[in-house]
Amino acid sequence: MLPLPIQHDELLATLNSFGTDLPSKCSLPVEELEKRLIKALHFSQRFDELFRLEAKKKLDPHEYHKWTNHNDQKVAKAMQRLSVEETVMGSAPISWDLKLGAESPNAEIFTELKHTMMGLGHAFDIDSKSRVYFVGADKDWLIEFQTLSVHKVAEDTPLILFCYNHQVLPERNALEKIPTASRYNPVVVISELERKVLLALWDHNGNRLATVHHKKVARKAGDYKASFVLPLGSIGMRELGSLSKNTGCVICGQANSPLRCDKCLSVIYCSERCQTVDWQLGHKDKCVTLQDATWHRVVFHDRPDGVDMGYTTMINRKDQIKGANFPALPVSNARGPSVKKTVLVKMQTPGIPGVTIPDHIMIYDRQRSFRKFWVRSGGPSDAAFRVAVQQIHRSGGKVYRWLKRIDDNEYEVCLDRVSPETPVW
Ligand SMILES: [Zn+2]
Ligand SMILES: [Zn+2]
Q: How far is the CA of 266 from the centre of ligand 2 (A)?
C-alpha cells in the first residue's frame, strides 16, 4: 500500500510524533497503522478544510493563483506552522534552510517533516528553478525534487506542485548522479524513516492530483511523478482521538475487542481466551485493583466561566496556532458516564507543565464522548485538586485516572491508583 514498507515500530513512532497516544505494545496490524499514517498526513495538511472536494474530484492547483513573493509572503515562511508549544517556549525553528546533515536519530519524525516542508519553500524562494536532492547516509538511493509551480490555495497557504524521481542505486553512488550546477541545488541527507514517510506523503497527494499534471510530467520525463505538498501542522484533538482509538486486543490485535479487564480497565481483549493468556503472561502482576482506593467527591463544570478561550489556546502543547482558529475540543456533553459506572479518564491541564499554575483541569473519556472541568473553587476538594495538578505536571501534562459518576455533575475521583501502563486510549 505504501511506496516503501514501514515497520510496525516505526509506524507507531511516526504516529505518536503527530500527537497520537498509541501504546508501545499496540498490536494493531501494520495495514491499519499505515491507514492511520495516511490519515494523519491528510489531517495535518488540513486538506478537507482547504479543499471541499467531492469524493471523486481531483485537485487541480492551476485553478488557484500563482503565489507571488513579496514582503512577508515568502513560501518558506508560509509553509511554517507553529504549535502552541513552539510559540510559548520560543523554540520556533528560525532557519528554513535545508540541513545538510541528517538530524539526530532521536528527532521526532513530524518535526523533521515540518522542517523539510519549509526547506522546500526556501529552495523555491531562492531560485524558482532549484532542485532539491535527498540522499540517505549510505548514498544508495536518491530522490530528486523539482518545483513546477507554487499556488495560493488560501490566504496564508501555499501549495507546491512538483515532480520527483526516486532511484535506488549501488552504495555510495548517489552523489555522482547529482549534476554539479551553478544553481541553488541543495543536497539533503535524511533518515530512512523520513524517506519512507516523505514518499508515502507524496504518493498519497499524487493520487489526489488531477490527471492532467501526471500526463504533463510523464510526457516530459517518464520516470518522474507529479505531486504536491502543503504546510504540515498539528492535528486537532478530535482527529487525534480517531487516530488513537480501537487499538485492538492486546494479545492478538483484533480490532473488534469488546472485553476489558474489569479491575484496571486499561487493557482490552477480543475474547476470554486472550484475556486468560495475558493474565498468565504477566498482566496479573501489573493489574491494579481499585479495591481500597480513596475517592474524592468533586463537582465538575461543563465549562469554566470566562476562561474557555484562554484554555482552548493552551489545551494541547502540540496544537497548531493558525490565526484565530484554535483547535477543536472534545465535545462538551452534560451527560457523562452512567451513574455508578467507573470509567478511566484522561486529565489535562492548560499551559506548559511547571510553568503555569492552572486553576482548572480538563477531564474527558477515551471516546471523547464527554468533557468536564474540575475548577479550583476554594472549597474542600481543593486539596485533591492540588494533588491532581502535581500528578499531571509530573507526567508531562496528562494522567489517566478513574472516576465514578454519583449524580448530575457530582463525581468521585480516584488519585491514588495509577493505571499500570499507558492505557488503550
Ligand atoms: Zn485477542
Ligand atoms: Zn487489569
A: 6
